[in-house]
Design the sequence.
């Protein structure tokens, strides 16, 4: 009931008092002059593919050096430089670059065109900058991290790595939905291959299959969405789709809040694409694959399952924002699903002990924030959060990976303590602190704060969505708590460690962790610097909500709600409240607790984040801090939280077991499917195989009957031949005689 | 010259007379067929009753020749050359077959130290 009322409200939200008819004007202007771009842009796409091919060749010729890593790093670095120059040489109008014809079918009046070509606008550039940039950095990190596996495994890893960057480029840069789908499936495949990298480990194989199968559900939605787009608009090319008159008339209708004249078919497109986005970006109810995906090597978790692939869903929705706007229920659903996911994953993350899993749940949770931002018409907030999250979450994963690498696979936060004080681990400790601060969103000093703030502010100023705002603020407190829980337990306090399951010595007391080398440290420092420098992005071009906003503004995602517009103007110009026309409506500025949206949010979410950190310190801080009433941990495995958890009844147990969502899915989906498949298996076995076997069995029966005639006595055969001949001749004789008689 | 030419013509017609006489009557044909049938029957009976593989092989040869004789007799009957041609082929095949069959018999003998066909009784279904 509640959900229904919340969903029915929404798009009234976009249609305040007087909607106006030109909501789609900016979009029309933008896609009107789509030009042709320079061919070197193709380098960005095809260099990673070359890396894939070269690494496969290295594997075939049995290379046993770090050559695959350096090849991949070099190629990705060139691709990154090409992306940078694509960014710098961008002249304000989107353009396409044609590689070769792919589908080019014309029949009668209609046509189906989906070429292997690329559509470049600022949204593409934003995504490609961090895809290739982080790809290069993480390849550098992996060159050291994967070095225990030099040989075929190393080649296989970097081969899939190159293929992944290629697929991701196709996904982000493709100029039609088919290219997007190609990339979408490609990254899914690479994700599968890399999660299952340790293919001798059953858990890794199971996780790879789970990721692939759960993604299949989402991909079905995407495929149907692409199909429906073609059916309704007659094209899958971006330039043609976004300049379609029908689409523009729908947008203008949606801006006035009138959805009754928009055909249901057009509204369904967004809902189907949304399902695809939920699968790839691990949103409720399809998020279950992502935590398990941590079975893959850590660089993979950082690149694919934190920074790039999982943001494909955000990209999809941002890219098809005009299509989402014309659907009455799509964006509100996106907002609510994102919010629920953020909260749910944060509660699970609080109770986990495996630090990589905590980071995985925090990824799911942060993706929830991004989806909430998209659903609340803050594509800028979502895209900015994607960018900052890409930096700090890659950093966090890589720092956790360094710990895992150095402590023989140990990830249990109860078995590690004081890592930052160990010799050679200082850089990991400091960069981890930077990552944790960003994830927790400490006010003013972290980029994660600014991007999260943008989404939270949007929730509070949008009428009917304050509830989402409160849930997200509460989730932010939880996030700060579980993030610093990891930091306080693992990185500070008395030095203590137990080696993980990869330790093969006899005596654990002789275990010495090996500190990370230069490659890992260099990457961690770079990412920490990027995370911190990203703060400045909030201050570049403040007129359009920061640097990311200035990029999003020049893309198909350039729609923001009138409330944001009004609030923003009130903030920027420090004037009294005045109503403003936004691209999607008209509104008076929203306020948070009587203050303008951003000031209010800085107070609320900033205080919330600090509160979360203090709570974490109170329960999990090292013993030495007890003078400050904070240190709650007496030794590595014991803390104040244990007593609290013991009084909370079954809740900690439920949260630790992920609210038994996997088990519920198992019971209501997997088990019935298995039963059905068993039934079909037996039908196949008994009925179909039975029939086939019967036809195989009959000749044997016949043979069994006539077999005695082959006696082995040579004369016997001769007699039968002679006898047979005699009978035959007798018959001929009879016939001849009769014929003669008749004549 | 003329005389010589005429004499060659006469000689030719005489040869033709020799090469292609008139059809045989049924009473002339019958003894040939009788001998052929007798040879075939002897061969068949021999094949059925003897166990020595060489003898059995000889009996098949006998049946071949019986068939050949019948073919030639009928060929003469109808004044055609088909019968004779066919017999030439049969002889060729029989010669080839004789080489193979004798080789087989030798091999079989080496395995069992016996020429009896019953030595191979276990080759049954």
Sequence:
């Amino acid at each position: 009931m509640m959900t229904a009322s919340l969903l029915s409200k929404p798009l009234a939200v976009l249609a305040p008092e007087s909607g106006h008819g030109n909501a789609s004007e900016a979009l029309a202007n933008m896609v009107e002059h789509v030009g042709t771009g320079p061919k070197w842009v193709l380098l960005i796409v095809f260099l990673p593919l070359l890396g894939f091919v070269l690494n496969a060749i290295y594997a075939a010729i049995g290379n046993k050096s770090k050559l695959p890593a350096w090849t991949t790093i070099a190629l990705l670095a060139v691709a990154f430089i090409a992306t940078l120059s694509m960014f710098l040489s961008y002249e304000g109008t989107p353009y396409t670059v044609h590689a070769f014809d792919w589908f080019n079918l014309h029949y009668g009046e209609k046509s189906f065109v989906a070429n292997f070509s690329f559509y470049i606008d600022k949204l593409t550039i934003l995504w490609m900058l961090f895809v290739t940039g982080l790809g290069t950095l993480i390849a550098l990190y992996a060159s050291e991290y994967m070095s225990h596996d030099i040989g075929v495994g190393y080649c296989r890893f970097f081969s899939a790595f190159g293929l992944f960057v290629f697929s991701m480029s196709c996904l982000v840069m493709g100029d039609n939905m088919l290219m997007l789908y190609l990339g979408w499936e490609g990254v899914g495949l690479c994700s599968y291959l890399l999660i299952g990298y340790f293919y001798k480990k059953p858990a890794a194989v199971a996780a790879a299959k789970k990721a692939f199968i759960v993604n299949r559900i989402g991909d079905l939605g995407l495929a149907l969405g692409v199909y429906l787009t073609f059916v309704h608009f007659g094209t899958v090319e971006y330039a043609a789709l976004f300049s379609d008159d029908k689409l523009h008339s729908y947008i203008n209708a949606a801006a006035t809040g009138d959805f009754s004249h928009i055909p249901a078919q057009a509204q369904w497109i967004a809902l189907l694409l949304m399902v695809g986005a939920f699968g790839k970006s691990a949103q409720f109810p399809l998020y279950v694959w992502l935590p398990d995906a941590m079975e893959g090597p850590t660089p993979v978790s950082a690149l694919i399952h934190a920074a790039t692939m999982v943001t494909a869903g955000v990209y999809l929705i941002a890219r098809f924002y005009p299509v989402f706007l014309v659907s009455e229920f799509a964006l509100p659903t996106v907002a609510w699903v994102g919010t629920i996911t953020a909260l749910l994953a944060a509660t699970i993350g609080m109770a986990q002990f495996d630090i990589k899993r905590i980071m995985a749940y925090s990824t799911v949770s942060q993706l929830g924030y991004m989806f909430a931002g998209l659903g609340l018409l803050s594509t800028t907030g979502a895209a900015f959060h994607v960018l900052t999250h890409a930096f700090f979450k890659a950093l966090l994963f890589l720092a956790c990976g360094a710990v895992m690498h150095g402590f023989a696979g140990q990830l249990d936060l109860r078995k590690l303590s004081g890592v930052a004080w160990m010799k050679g681990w200082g850089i990991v400790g400091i960069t981890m602190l930077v990552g944790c601060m960003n994830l927790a969103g400490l006010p003013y000093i972290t980029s994660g704060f600014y991007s999260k703030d943008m989404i939270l502010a949007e929730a509070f100023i949008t009428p009917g969505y304050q509830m989402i705002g409160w849930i997200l603020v509460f989730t932010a407190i939880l996030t700060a708590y579980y993030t610093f829980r990891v930091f306080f337990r693992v990185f500070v306090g008395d030095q203590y460690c137990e080696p993980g399951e990869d330790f093969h010595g006899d005596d654990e007391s002789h275990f010495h962790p090996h500190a990370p080398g230069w490659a890992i440290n260099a990457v961690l420092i770079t990412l920490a610097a990027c995370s911190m420098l990203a703060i400045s992005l909030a201050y570049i071009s403040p007129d359009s909500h920061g640097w990311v906003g200035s990029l999003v503004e020049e893309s198909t995602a350039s729609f923001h709600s009138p409330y944001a517009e009004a609030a923003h103007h009130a903030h920027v110009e420090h004037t009294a409240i005045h109503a403003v026309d936004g691209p999607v409506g008209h509104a008076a500025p929203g306020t948070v607790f009587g203050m303008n949206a951003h000031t209010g949010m800085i107070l609320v979410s900033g205080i919330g984040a600090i509160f979360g950190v203090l709570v974490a310190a109170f329960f999990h801080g090292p013993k030495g801090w007890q003078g400050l009433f904070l240190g709650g941990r007496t030794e590595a495995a014991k803390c104040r939280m244990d007593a609290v958890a013991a009084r909370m009844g079954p809740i900690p147990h439920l949260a630790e077991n992920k609210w038994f969502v996997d088990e519920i899915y198992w019971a209501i989906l997997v088990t019935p499917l298995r039963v059905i498949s068993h039934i079909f298996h037996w039908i196949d076995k008994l009925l179909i195989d039975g029939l086939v076997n019967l036809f195989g069995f009959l000749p044997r029966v016949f043979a069994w009957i006539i077999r005695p005639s082959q006696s082995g006595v040579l004369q016997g055969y001769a007699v039968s031949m002679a006898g047979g001949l005699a009978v035959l001749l007798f018959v001929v004789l009879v016939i001849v005689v009769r014929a003669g008689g008749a004549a | 010259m003329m005389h010589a030419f005429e004499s060659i013509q006469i000689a030719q017609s005489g040869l033709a007379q020799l090469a292609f006489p008139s059809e045989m009557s049924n009473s002339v044909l019958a003894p040939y067929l009788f001998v052929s049938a007798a040879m075939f029957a002897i061969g068949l009976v021999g094949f059925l009753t003897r166990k020595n593989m060489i003898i059995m092989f000889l009996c098949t040869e006998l049946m071949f020749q019986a068939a050949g004789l019948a073919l030639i007799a009928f060929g003469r009957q109808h004044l055609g050359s088909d019968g004779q041609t066919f017999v030439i082929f049969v002889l060729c095949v029989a010669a080839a077959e004789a080489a193979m069959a004798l080789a087989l018999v030798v091999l079989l003998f080496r395995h069992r130290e016996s020429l009896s066909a019953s030595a191979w009784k276990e080759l049954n279904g």
Q: What stands out?
A: Confidence is low (pLDDT under 50) at residues 1-21, 574-578 of chain A.
